[in-house]
Amino acid sequence: MSEKVTALRDELILKLNEATDAASVDALRVEYLGKNGSITGLLKGMKDLSIEEKKDFGQKVNVLKEEAGKLIADKIEEIKKLEVEAEINSMPEFDISTPANLSRGSYHPITLVQRQCEKVFKSMGFNVEDYSEVVTDYECFEALNIPKHHPARDMQDTYYLENGQLLKSHTSAAQNAIYKKYKDALINEGKPIKAIFPGRCFRNEATDACHENTFFQMEGVMVDKNISISNLIFFMKTMLSEVFQKDIKVRLRPGFFPFVEPGFELDISCLICGGDGCPSCKHSGWLELCPCGMIHPEVLKAGGIDPEEYTGFAFGLGLTRLAMMKYGVKDIRDLNSGSLKALGQFTDDE
Ligand code: DAH
User: Fold this and answer.
1) Structural domains of the chain, with CATH
2) Which pTM does this prediction carry?
3) 49 C-alpha to center of ligand 1: Å?
4) Is the CB of 264 under 6 A from ligand 1?
5) Of 68, 152, 242, 339, which is least packed with CB atoms within 10 Å of its CB?
6) Omega cis (within 30) before 291
7) How many other C-beta atoms lie within 10 A of the C-beta of residue 186?
8) What is the pLDDT of residue 261?
9) What region, left, alpha or beta, does residue 297 occupy, with left being phi > 0 and alpha being psi -120 to 50 degrees?
10) Are strands 260-269 and 250-254 parallel, antiparallel or unpaired?
């Protein structure tokens, strides 16, 4: 009987060595350790053994069970590590140590993507708005249907001033002011509200390669009679195809944000593999890019617009994320480093 244990152990090790992705390792876990797995099956075959044999064999099987669990967990860990390495290697090359051409000035990569987005939206009739970095609690949260003590505030902890004002945690904080600014033209002259507002945002966040306490977003809103999700998809697809200079496919998944109903996460077809699946998109063919949705009636009301008569869409594009994706910047901290060596490498490709 104990040869069976050794044989199964050898067989598992062989198969694990051959496995190259997490799904096949998981299939091995089921094959060996699942309810009907072959290791579990060994225990079932013990009924014909003597008490002594049972004790000895049971012990061996349990040791194998434990070892197999560990081997499988280690293999998954190893595959994940390889996937991350492959993802990093598959990104476009950006070399922080390349000498910059310092004889002339250059734009910051975020400025470059911001201008590209502004250009496309302007051509589609959107106004570009500026808004302050210091805002009130009302603008940042209450007017966006996020009352005090709402759990959505947890993800948006920011920096507070002694007078109760705060550094805006998202560009959505400008929505209320934009509605109030344009509502009369909408109601009296029938002019749709079409505005984008790029801006610096802040969050009380520990920094690492993917997180920063200071980053850029670009919010966009459109309000008129009969605005629907198709309008949202059209504008996003057009803008992203221009920015990336290729036809970008988009898809919407449900997402929750208190200021939109329904809310979505907008994904774009993977820029590296075009949708076939690669480590960058975790083999899904899609990259998560931009939350968006249909503006919540309470948010329109707070802006002085009647939600019975008007509807609209809003989106919050991460400009920092977009710049990282477009230029292959792997560490978000490089963007705020102020290092001319790193940041002087980007030029407007127009
Ligand atoms: N303000 C949100 C954030 O920073 C992003 C967002 C989500 C903006 C949905 C929107 C939207 O306009 O519709 O987390």
Assistant:
1) 2-90 (no CATH), 109-343 (3.30.930.10)
2) 0.71
3) 65
4) no
5) 339
6) no
7) 20
8) 97
9) alpha
10) antiparallel
Q: Quick check: 152 and 221 in contact, CB under 8 A? A: no
Of 202, 239, 244, 252, which Cα lies nearest the Cα of 124? 239
Walk along the chain (350 residues) in steps of 10 and give the mean pLDDT of each run. Answer: 83 91 88 88 81 86 90 89 77 72 79 92 94 97 96 93 97 98 97 97 90 94 97 90 85 96 93 81 87 97 98 95 85 89 73
- Smallest CA-to-CA distance from 303 within 178, 147, 128, 186 is with 178
Return the structure tokens found at 202.
């802040």
Give residue for tokens 């579990």. Answer: 40
pLDDT for 103: 66
What pLDDT is stored for residue 1 in this prediction?
A: 60
Please state the atom number of ligand 1 nearest to the C-alpha of residue 171.
1
Neighbours of 329 (CB within 10 A): 25
Q: Which of 172, 218, 295 to mutate to test the pocket of ligand 1 (most atoms within 8 A of CB)?
A: 172
